[in-house]
Design a protein that fits this description.
Rossmann fold; 6 helices; alpha/beta
């Protein structure tokens, strides 16, 4: 557990700031002791979020946050394990872990910060990039249809899969609280701003 929090290193206007605020407020209102919180994050812009919440934390390998989080929960079932990824991390390289966690109903909370691109590596197309969107890898417009993460999770058996936006902090905070209190696998896809690379 860290004694102090690191300086936040996100682009100005990034939706991660709002989402971080909602997570912190949700944990405060639930009155969960920080020693009972474990934040597990993957690689990407949102990967740093584990450094900005007071509690135990791990920033893991790209696409491998979910199995790490499941391991933490198995080792200490009393902890509240919140796994945080982003669309490139969780719906790209980590997709199979996501789908199998939905199937197995592993008791963790999974928040995906969906900015519809690989922002940390300068804006390449991801699994949720809209059709026709111009990115670093789709300069003439994206031709690969994006999938709907909530519907995909439900089709894999997830009983708690919701979508929220970074701009409605009050609603997001309440949804995060609901997800944390849910006894099994809870997934929230959070649509977020990315002023540096999301220009559609």
């Amino acid at each position: 557990m860290r004694k102090g929090l690191n300086l936040i290193q996100w682009c100005p206007g990034c939706g991660d700031f709002l989402i971080l605020g909602a997570i912190r407020k949700a944990l405060q209102e639930l009155e969960i002791p920080k020693e009972d919180i474990v934040i597990v994050s993957g690689v990407g812009c949102s990967g740093k979020i584990s450094q900005y919440i007071d509690g135990y934390a791990a920033e893991t390998l790209h696409g491998r946050a979910i199995p790490f989080a499941i391991g933490v929960k198995l080792a200490n079932p009393k902890t509240h394990v919140i796994c945080i990824g982003w669309d490139g991390d969780g719906y790209g390289i980590g997709l199979w872990h996501f789908l199998h966690a939905c199937r197995r109903n592993n008791p963790i909370t999974y928040l995906v910060l969906d900015n519809e691109n690989y922002a940390l590596t300068t804006g390449q197309a991801s699994s949720t990039t809209p059709l026709s969107a111009k990115t670093r890898t789709t300069t003439s417009g994206n031709t690969t249809p994006p999938f709907n993460p909530v519907e995909l999770a439900k089709s894999a058996g997830c009983q708690f899969s919701r979508e929220a936006t970074d701009s409605n902090i009050a609603e997001l905070k309440e949804l995060i609280k609901e997800a944390i209190l849910f006894d099994w696998f809870a997934h929230i896809n959070i649509k977020q701003k990315c002023p540096s690379w999301k220009r559609w």
